[in-house]
Amino acid sequence: MNEISLCMIVKNEEEVLRECLSSVKEIVDEIIIVDTGSTDKTKEIAREFTDKVIDFEWIDDFSAARNFAFSHATKDFIFWMDADDILLKADQDKFKKLKEELNESVDTVSMLYHIAFDDYGNPQFSFRRNRLVKRSNNFKWKGAVHEYLEFGGRVIKSDVAIRHRKKDKKNVNVQSDRNLKIYENRLRKGEEFTPRDTFYYANELRDHRQFEAAIQFYQKFIDMEQGWVEDKIRACINLAACYRELGDLENEIEALIKSIVYDVPRPEVSCRLGDLYKERKLYNKAIIWYQIAIQANVEEIQGFRQESYSTWYPYLQLCVCYWHTGQKELAVEYNNKAKKYRPNDQAILNNEKFFEEYFSNKS
């Protein structure tokens, strides 16, 4: 059986590191922890799991730190995760099975990454990341911020899912402007941004509610010939969100429509266009867009994916729209479909009660 090295970079992760490492300690054969300057008990906790805890002087470059960690791996494959990531029991079992089946013909394994959840703990925002790579290929990390692993060869898609638990960290707000500052320092030095840098810098600006500046960089990225198509689509969606925050409806619609240039409408785009028609009481037009959202094949989406826009949300909006167009039975049907995803949602339950009273009075 092939053996696996876990490589991580950490800093001040005492709140989450123990649970993270506990969730993978029975899967991996080697744990390498690279610390970039912790002042809490992070290294002490790490040493409970491994004697390979190595210091690295932080130079505002995530790729440099990750490549340093990778350089200390000695096993057949390298697995990476962050300290605020975790594998649930079901995914631990899937990973163990994957490890048993892993062979030399595989170069890279992608895994699902769930980063946002609904009130019931169901994943709502997910995408794939290349998590497990053959060490002998010597794949490298690229990019100082929002780094990515350059890979090649045979890639397989695993059903293993990693859950991100950033909200569990008390010090998250203290660190939230770190990436933005790194980008701004690079700009001050006159560094030229890659298309990926431009896109992620725009995201940082948007997250910090600097919407006018974010719009400028999203537009700059969209106008570039280079760039991953999924990032182009996401840039259009995020650009529309910035215009929405600024109350610019015309440009919001234009940005959403622009995303369709790259591929069929993403469920999020369709739902937002449906919302715009619904808000204006143009229910029949809204229905068209919500129906497009539920018909999308989300499994083919390689980039960011928000589950709500292809599940309960369009169903619930269709319930409202069909009711207002006099199609009462369809309204009930789509409320029931939404309930399958959110059985305890108060709005859905209120609809159910309303329908019961309405049809009872009518009869």
UniProtKB/TrEMBL annotation:
SUPFAM superfamilies: Nucleotide-diphospho-sugar transferases (SSF53448), TPR-like (SSF48452). Coiled coil: none annotated. Residues 5-139 form the Glycosyltransferase 2-like domain. This is Glycosyltransferase 2-like domain-containing protein. It comes from the Bacteria. Pfam families: Glycos_transf_2 (PF00535), TPR_8 (PF13181). SMART domains: TPR.
